[in-house]
Design goal:
Elements lengths: L2 H29 L5 H6 L5 H11 L5 H13 L13 H36 L4 H15 L2 H22 L5 H10 L14 H7 L1 H26 L3 H8 L4 H12 L1 H17 L2 H6 L5 H10 L3 H29 L8
Helix pairs in contact: 1-16, 5-6, 5-10, 5-13, 6-10, 7-10, 10-12, 10-13, 11-12, 13-16, 15-16
Length: 339
């Protein structure tokens, strides 16, 4: 087998093993939660006979190992079971929610990834000068503030204060005020549905996109900056400078391509966060995604839903890290050899 194919096969095998271990932890963790699922469903007034029948119907009397393998086999076949609270098929409910989460993550990534790489390149170009210091200060500030705090601040200023400020500007005239209110309208609740157009959906999720962009921007920008600065110390960069090549051209043609492996790793980690770590953002903006769905059913102790969401989140996170590993192997010849 070719060495590259062998390394990729090893990474995929490790990823599957890690996902299997994660499934055990997720199933075991939900089983150890305090309380009685049957009691939660039937309420405090349930009789012992009805509780016993409910436990039997839910399979709670089966050995944990049997229940785990039944659950895992169903997951591999696309059968996630039904929600205990409403009896709906979990796979159908999650399909809609997952598409919403991926829609939000896609637009946040579409803005944050190019912006982070561009800012990282600018920081390298103007190293230790005011653009570099300004970019670093802003990104460090945004990463130091919890995302829910950024969300509430943006809601207060952009969704509440900004319309009031525009309405108070009588000198603008009614046509200008109406245009500004129509085009600078930010919604504090990011609700989307199939009847909305693409533009309407994007307008509705503008604030969550801004928050996610600010949260992941600093990681990617600083890794881009650090990786390129590390490459800039190489001998071939000095040779290019001695030949009279411009700094921007050196960065674009020589430094950036050779620093792509660590940049891809941090980009994939942040893309994983955009899908897996949006729980807080979805709750703040009442966005109908997987995070909101998970939180709603955690409070109701709907164990099958929690297990399904947890395993899907784990699969997405492991999968994106696996992609980052493979891209790093293909981009860096040194990683293709055991030595």
């Amino acid at each position: 087998m070719h060495p590259i194919l062998k390394l990729i096969a090893q990474r995929i095998a490790l990823g599957l093993m890690l996902l299997f271990a994660a499934s055990i932890l997720i199933f075991g963790g939900t089983m150890m939660l305090p309380g009685d699922v049957a009691q939660q469903i039937l309420g405090q007034s349930a009789t012992p006979e009805s509780l016993a029948n409910m436990r039997e119907s839910l399979g709670l009397n089966d050995p944990p190992m049997t229940r785990y393998f039944q659950w895992l086999a169903g997951f591999l076949q696309g059968d996630l079971g039904v929600a205990l609270t409403n009896g709906r098929d979990i796979a159908e409910s999650l399909g809609f929610r997952l598409s919403n989460t991926l829609f939000l993550a896609f637009w946040a990534a579409l803005i944050s990834v190019p912006l982070a790489i561009t800012l990282g390149l600018l920081a390298v170009r103007y190293k230790d000068r005011w653009p570099d210091k300004l970019i670093s200060a802003i990104t460090l500030t945004t990463i130091s503030i919890p995302e829910f705090m950024i969300g509430y601040v943006l809601i207060f200023f952009l969704a509440i204060q900004l319309p009031q400020l525009i309405q108070s500007m009588d000198f603008l005239g009614d046509p200008v005020q109406s245009w500004l209110l129509a085009n600078l309208k930010f919604s504090s609740v990011a609700l989307i549905n199939d009847s909305m157009t693409l533009i309407e959906k994007i307008k509705s999720i503008t604030l969550p996109i801004i928050v996610l962009t600010l949260v992941v921007l600093a990681h990617m920008m600083r890794m881009t900056r650090a990786a390129i600065l590390n490459v800039m110390q190489s001998a071939y960069i000095e040779t290019a400078e001695l030949k009279g090549m411009g700094m921007l051209k050196i960065i674009r043609k020589h430094a950036f391509p050779n620093a792509i492996a660590p940049i891809v790793n941090v980009v994939m980690l942040n893309l994983a966060y955009l899908v897996v770590g949006v729980v807080v953002i979805e709750v703040v903006f009442a966005y109908p995604g997987m995070g909101q769905y998970l939180v709603d059913h955690v409070s109701k102790r709907d164990v099958p839903v929690v297990q399904a969401c947890g395993l899907i989140f784990a699969a997405v996170y492991i999968g994106l890290n696996l992609v980052a590993d493979i891209v790093s192997i293909l981009a860096n010849p040194r990683l293709r050899h055991p030595k």
